[in-house]
Amino acid sequence: MKMSVQIGFLPILIIVTLCCQYQLFAQQNSGDITVILTDLENNDGHVLVSLVNSKRTFLSDDPYRGEQVEPKNRQAVYTFKDVPFGTYAVSAFHDENDNLDLDTNFLGIPTEEYGFSNDARGTFGPPDYEEAAFRLNTTKLTIKIELD
Question: What CATH fold (topology level) applies to the domain 31-146?
Answer without folding.
Answer: Immunoglobulin-like (2.60.40)
